[in-house]
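In these records, each integer encodes one residue's backbone shape. Here is one protein:

___
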Amino acid sequence: MNLMKKLTLKNLKLNRKRTIVTIVGIILATALLSALVTLVSSFQYSMIEYQKQKDGDFHVKFSGVKMSELSEFKNNRNIESTFETMGMGFAKLDGCKNEDKPYAYVMATDEAGFERGCFKLIEGRMAKNEDEIVIPRHLRTNGRIDIKVGDEITLDIGKRYDSSTESVIWENIAYEHEAETLTDTVTKQYKVVGIMERPGYGMEDYSAAGYTFVTYSNELAAIDNGTKSEVNEADTTLTVYSRYTQKALRNKDAVTADIIGVDEKLFEKANNSSVEMSAEESDRYFKEMENAKYDIYINRFLISYECVFPIDGTFKALFTVATVVALIIILTSVYCIKNSFNISITEKIRQYGMLASVGATRRQIKSSVKTEAAMLGVVGIPVGTMSGILASLILVKVVNALSAGWLNFALSFHTSLPALILAVILSIATIYFSATGSARRAAKVTPLEAIRNTKEIKIKSAKLKTPAIIGRIWGIGGVVSYKNIKRNKKKYRTTVTSIVICSVTFIVISYFMSMAFSMVGMSYASTDYNIGINMSCKKNLDIEKLSELLSGIEGAKDYLVGAGYYFDVDKPEYTKEYGEYCGQLYDDSEDVSQEFFITVLNDKSYDKYASDAGIKNADTGAILVNKCTFDVYNEKSSKYVKKEMELYKYKAGDTIRCGYNVYEDASSDDNAVEGDTESSTEDSRGYVDEETINNGVRKTLDVTIAGVTDKVPTCYNGYGNTTLLFMNQKGFESLWADGKSGNELKPGNATYSAYVVAENADEYQDTLEKETEENPEYSQISFSVSNLDKQMRDEKSLFTLLGVFAYGLIVVIALIGITNIINTLSTGMELRSREFATLRSIGMTDKQFAGMVRLESVFISVKALVIGVPLGILISYLLCVIMNRMDGAIIYEPPYKAIILCIVVVIMLIYAIMKLSMTKLRHNNIIETIKNENL
């Protein structure tokens, strides 16, 4: 070890506090980077496992594969692995309440199918032989057939046959009622050994006519084990679920097109959402798919999650976020560690001058600083990397422990060696860039400058004049503090800049995460209830009475009852943006009548909704939901994106004239509904054509707007593009008071619905059906109950996963910001202890000393926040503009919560650090502090 290295090591040992502070900064920067890459890796792995559980562990499903063709899939070099299922047929279910789903669809598979298919067992076990069977949970919740584990069932299994087309109907085709029958039935007896969740869309289409029952197949097991050849089973039809290799995933469209025998370029174009096809190409594509060798289903989400390169879909956003955060961590860490080195260089100026005076070259001085950085890195990087991994593991374990019982799956901890190596390289780069500037500065020091040690202090008498108010408020301590700030501008600027960077970073990242959640929320409609009820009756229903029924059942945590009425508004007052959107859809015409849906809520739900929306005097009219999300074509990105926009110019107190029709034959036709133009010529986007409006007796009524909001009541999150108005029963009935409308709406014109958040959805559904069936008061009402418990839990799981990642990153950024502030302020105070001791030695009292420190705290806080907060808002706004141009459009809203939290934390942190440092300095021996050359 040469002399310079020995001297560097000795200095590190002598200045233990500063060494420890710098090492902590390095550890934190490395820990944050390793935690970031570990969180990203864990998030990706968790999403992959979630999608496998939800839809199955496969990339492409091929239906209609002959047994003799199975070897083509097994030997295909682009296919990593397969599992197969065999359709045994359909059996009629006696007592099924769902008229559109009257069958059991019996499917057979083997161990590989049970393991990799989306068969999530909730009770019992999987089938192990051909006499055992597993049934789905929604057979009970949707079909209302209660079969338990251990029951024996007999099924007459056959083929669905369409007599009108004289053809067999496949499994995922909707039930055709009178047109179909079961043929070639075979009676089979099974023992129920398990109950599973409803299989995913890839295995049971939501329009399918049968509930999926799964049994075991000895044939498939024998083929997989190699004890039986598939050659002699040419007539047996299978469904093959295939996993592609990573290389094949990058060209998945070409690989799939080759297997099913269609044009590769046309297939790739049709499956690329960013490319628009011509009408001729679309026709040709559909013809080719009709003649394709197999029907297919593509597990797009799993492919998107696994196909990292090229980055696609969800993970394009994820890796963009991770890259932005990594850059922020690096930049902030560079500044934090650079501060430590700069402060160290400043205090060792005399030492470097002495070294230069005895012959040390600039290169040797630079090498000394870089050696110091390397020594600190050797300690900090390994500890930081392990700390980041441990922090990520603890976070995952804590989330899993807290969410046990309500989260639909467990978060997975996963580390990636390449990602960790990348984190270490970035950490080394962070330390290198931090030390380089300081080394260059140290090398420039001349012996004369070092002896005088005045380079850091710039004195201009005109700028040292102190305002009189500072002396009156803070006394001599404040005056000294003010002059000191003016004399040592570089140190003061370093401290302020450090806090500004941390504040801006926190505000921008907080906004970035909230914007990401908004975009996810626009893409995936959230289900915030687990029981949905549709009611129909030939007479008007009392929604308050229905509310009493639903709330009276044990386990109802929240509920809402609504009666919906369709109206149309002629030439509503569109906003410019929404008017242009409507004009683009309908041949540049903004004069098309717009459909409005008025929902009358039960009093309790309406009052809660009005309170949440911040609308007072809501009883005087209707609440208008004036914001909606649409699919808009973005010419710059050449694809459709979700865009949120305000709809109308209406404000509280305005009146909307709503129209509806009364048809002459309404009384004789129970399905003819006043205002319910959807039953005739209304299109799916809510527009009503003139022929429908003019059909029948035209009526209008004026609805007063009580308030405008962008919120919707609980359970109405998935209502799409329909313009929504909400009223209570009293307000709605007042529209007809004193003959205002000239007539009354006729019975049967409303659509009644209710939504319940139940503690136990299955028990609630059972109790509700029992009470409505036994009570003659409800005999005239038809109740259609949907149990959406699994869907609600799945969506909660997805948003929880996103939340853990998003808020984990915010905590990461907050930690590095707080540490940076603590490091900068505490080190600065520690290194100024000689200056403070000198002031106390010439008579400065404790009160004056406290005043001086408090004034510095005020100056630092105010200046940092005055610069940092507006800069954070500006950058977050620019970020919103950039994201809108690239891949979406949302309305900018400043991150008020993050701004307030930032201001409070900065003020409290600076005050606490200054106070603690001041207390510590008071106890230092004045003479020993002045003599200490290591400060």
Remarks:
- The longest strand covers residues 180-196.
- The chain has 29 helices and 22 strands.
- The first helix runs from residue 3 to 14.
- The CA atoms of residues 594 and 687 lie 5 Å apart.
